[in-house]
């Protein structure tokens, strides 16, 4: 799983096998370690939530936890839906933009870089 932070937005890119594990009920997690200090880390998690909201995000104990509802996961798992997108209010003037997307194969990189990605819908088309 890849993480991208920009401004007040978060984007997760998920491979085929990660999506399959998530659909089976597993929690997908990655950890970034900044030094040998056990507290110098940031984890990011994607899981199925037991809530009715399509997407929730929490930041707890050095973890970004993104939860999707079972309904959202079911519809996203199909071939034609690229991602799940949400604008979550933080306060009266701020929203957190959330994108959870399938990780598509890059059209200009090696096969190794494209391992376990989804077929790019633009493959074979002229730019």
CATH topology: Gyrase A, domain 2
Number of strands: 8
**Distance between the first and last residues' Cα:** 27 Å
| DSSP helix fraction | 10-25%
CATH architecture: 2-Layer Sandwich
Q: How many domain modules? A: 1
Order of helices and strands: EEHEEEEHEE
Count helical runs: 2
Question: What shape does the CA trace take?
Answer: globular
In percent terms, what proportion of residues is strand? 35-45%
Description:
The chain is mainly beta and 127 residues long. It has one domain: Gyrase A, domain 2 (2-Layer Sandwich), CATH 3.30.1360. It has 2 helices and 8 strands; from the N terminus they run E-E-H-E-E-E-E-H-E-E. The strands form 2 sheets. Strands 1-2-8-7 form a 4-stranded mixed sheet. It is globular, with a radius of gyration of 16 Å. 13% of the residues are buried. The mean pLDDT is 87.
In short:
The chain has helices spanning 16-23, 70-76, and strands at 2-6, 9-14, 28-33, 41-48, 55-60, 63-68, 83-89, 95-102.
How is this fold's topology laid out?
Elements (H helix, E strand, L loop, with lengths): L1 E5 L2 E6 L1 H8 L4 E6 L7 E8 L6 E6 L2 E6 L1 H7 L6 E7 L5 E8 L25
Parallel strand pairs: 2-8, 4-6
Antiparallel strand pairs: 1-2, 3-4, 5-6, 7-8
List keywords for this structure.
127 residues; mainly beta; Gyrase A, domain 2; 4-stranded mixed beta sheet; 12% helix; globular
């Amino acid at each position: 799983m890849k993480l991208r932070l920009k401004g007040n937005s978060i984007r997760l890119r998920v491979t085929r096998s990660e999506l399959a594990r998530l659909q089976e009920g597993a929690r997908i997690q990655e950890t970034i370690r900044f030094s040998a200090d056990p507290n110098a880390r940031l984890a990011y998690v994607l899981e199925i939530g037991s809530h009715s909201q399509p997407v929730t995000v929490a930041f707890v104990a050095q973890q970004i936890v993104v939860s999707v509802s079972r309904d959202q996961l079911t519809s996203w798992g199909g071939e034609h839906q690229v991602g799940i997108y949400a604008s979550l209010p933080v306060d009266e003037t701020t929203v957190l933009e959330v994108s959870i997307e399938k990780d598509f194969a890059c059209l200009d990189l090696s096969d190794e870089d494209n391992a376990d990605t989804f077929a790019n819908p633009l493959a074979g088309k002229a730019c």
